[in-house]
Amino acid sequence: MLSNVIRVKAERKEGAMIAELYTVYRTELLRYCCMICGNNSDAEVLLQETFVKALSNLDLLEELREKERRAWLYKVARNLFYDACRRRTIEQNKLLPTEEETDGGFSEIETAMILSSLPPDLSQLFIKRYFDGYTSKELAEEYGLSPSGVRAALSRARKLLREQMK
Q1: Which CATH number fits domain 106-165: 1.10.10.10, 3.30.70.2860, 1.10.1060.10, 3.10.310.70?
Q2: Domain 2-95: CATH architecture, name and number where available
Q3: pLDDT tens for residues 20-41?
């Protein structure tokens, strides 16, 4: 189907370059798409989307040299693959039950009780890093430690928590 669209565009002189790119790079680009997708059907779809994108960016492609066009096709294929992965992840996350719907997580009270068993300095460090989103560098500045010292302290805290959870 895509090759028919490209032929029609080429016959109108507006897509002759696209038809040439399709003829020259189809096989190697399909191999690349198969490699990143892991199967032929997804790779074919990705290849089609790549050339559809090329059709809509004729002006840009006409300004590029041959090697740049090839690189552009590969980059578009890769980015379209990443976009599809992101969409798939978002869709899967919508299907996952929320924390309120499962009893696999800890309640706030249980979390507070578990963290209270840590020494106060480790508990605060742990909370700021894993619940408040501070980086090791930010915590190092706040506590007057090195970033590696913060990571070591967090490692000790995780080890203590693992021991308590046994």
Answers
A1: 1.10.10.10
A2: Orthogonal Bundle (1.10)
A3: 999 999 999 999 999 998 899 9
Long-range CB pairs of 75-81, under 8 A, 24+ apart, other chains included: 76/50, 77/29, 77/32, 77/33, 77/36, 77/46, 77/47, 77/50, 78/36, 80/46, 80/49, 80/50, 80/53, 81/33, 81/36, 81/37, 81/46
* pTM beyond 0.85: no
Q: How many CA atoms lie within 13 A of 63 on its CB side?
A: 3
Token representation of residue 35: 């490699």
- Which tokens is 83 given? 């976009």
Question: How big is the CA angle at 143 (ends 163 and 126), to the nearest 5 degrees?
Answer: 30
